[in-house]
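Table 4 source record.
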Amino acid sequence: MRLFILGATGRTGAELVDQALARGHAVTAFARSPRKITRAHERLTVFGGDPRDAVQLRAALPGHDAVLSALGPGPAADHPRLPLPSTNGSRPVTVCGDCAHSTVRAMQHTALHRLMVVSVSFLFPDFLLGTIVGNLLFRDVLRDAREMERVVAASDMDWTIVRPPQLTNGVRTERYRVKDGHLPPRGFSISRADLAHFMLQEVEDPRHLRAIVGVSR
């Protein structure tokens, strides 16, 4: 497959790139800072651009089979134990929502329909502790994630929204649990490597189309 990866300079995005190449796929890594991607591979294309710009995305998307987005507003979204970047006196966090708007618009002008995005488990209504903590400490991140999910779910894409809990730098075990519409019971963390593995499995063998999925170890 030809996979288009957003957020490839982040830790989850880097796992997606590495594992996709290892599985034999061709990968386009679309990034605002392409120089941060130092890996060279004959099946890896690095494309510099702004993921909030639908025109730039539209120029790069043709010929791909799926878009996988590991975009996030910063360290707090990737690792919930880290403090949020301060937004006092600055613009609110909107990167995920903005990129969802641009990505869907760009995809609607191509023959590309498969879209996978990473969100946050705090949005599961039955994850009570996570909801309380999220609303207290990560309000901007949750607002941004909700907007991203709203845009994706309202589109005509073949979408999957993945809501992992805390992400770790652990190894790929391929032993994780998946549940539609809920976080698996006592699912407190998952490694970025296992999250990337699930996303690639789902792209290759779709089982959760137009679904919100919880995944954890």
